[in-house]
Amino acid sequence: MLNYLMKNKAPIDSRLFHSSVNPNALLPGDMVLYTPNEEVFKGDIADSTKGNFFHVGLILKSLGSSVYETLHTGGGGAYIRNENFSIGIVSDGVFIVRVKTKISASVIYAQAQTLAGTPYDSASLFGVGLAAWDRRCLQNKSLIFRLFGQKLSKKIISFVNRKGSLKICSGLTLDVLSKSIVGGQKLFKESPVALSQMSPNCIYFEAVLDVDDFEIFCLSPMSSIQLDRRKKYFIRAGLCLLNKVSPKAP
Question: Which InterPro entries does the protein's record reference (predicted)?
């Protein structure tokens, strides 16, 4: 079923298909995707970027017993915290995206230390939401993109929507991770949007489509509350974000 969906580039539901992972087995460089535990702000981020995830963190270092140093970016800027991923403690709906290529744990840690305190770029959230829409339309060959080939469509996206940021959670995470890959391999080589334009949901969907370079694991499944949550239309959710930048980190 997963191979069928990937081949036909159909929307893939993140509640399905992924094997579980032991919370003691996370690695430096693992990206941690979180589903919202509220509809206000966190739900708007997920909805504006057309998916189930509102935030991504980056595993930096194991401290033992399912506790890890993780890099996050929220309303207060970038910061590092100790996080316990034991079963029963983790939030509702947490997934792990792992790069298969070799990464340098020391480089990840050094980069994170350097970038801690980076201000949060809330003004770019709406543009990242538009990039998520661009990506979905191109993938599904809908609207204007049904008239053009993949190559020309990517050029149109690049020209029309150039707004992104490396100072939001997904942009900062991907920036740190890309600089830590041994050999300098590019992340998400086939993505129609730049790393700075990718949302947590873009990370998930691109990883699903690129099984040669990424693995996805379920750390904590989504509950029925998450699965049945009524989502806002993505433009409405994006406009709400402009007026509701959270003063607190996720």
Answer: Papain-like_cys_pep_sf (IPR038765)
Q: Beta-carbon neighbour count of residue 200 at 10 Å?
A: 30
> Strands, DSSP E only, in the chain?
31-34, 55-64, 67-74, 77-84, 94-99, 214-220
CA angle at residue 156 from 153 to 162, to 5 degrees?
130
For residues 33 and 70, is the Cβ–Cβ distance under 8 A?
no
| Rounded Cα distance, 30 and 63, in Å | 15
Give the whole-number percent of the chain exceeding pLDDT 90: 38
* Distance (Å, whole) CA 29 – CA 26: 9
- Contact, 204 vs 97, CB < 8 A? yes
Closest among 56, 66, 61 to 104, alpha carbons compared: 61
Q: Are strands 55-64 and 77-84 parallel, antiparallel or unpaired?
A: unpaired
User: Phi then psi for 99, rounded to 5 degrees?
Assistant: -75, 130
Tell me the mean pLDDT in the region 41-48: 76
Closest CA to 18 of 52, 44, 68: 52
pLDDT band of 90, cuts 50, 70, 90: confident
Q: How many helices (H) and strands (E) does the chain have?
A: 9, 6
**Per-residue buried b or exposed e for 213-225, using 16+ beta carbons within 10 Å of the residue's own CB:** bbebbbbbbbeee
**Position of tokens 């399912």?**
66
Instruction: Judge whether residue 100 has pLDDT over 90.
Output: yes
Q: Answer positive or negative: Cα dihedral of 55, 172, 242, 250.
A: positive
Q: Are 11 and 210 in contact (CB under 8 A)?
A: no
Cβ-in-10-Å burial (0-12, 13-18, 19+) of 43 comes to buried
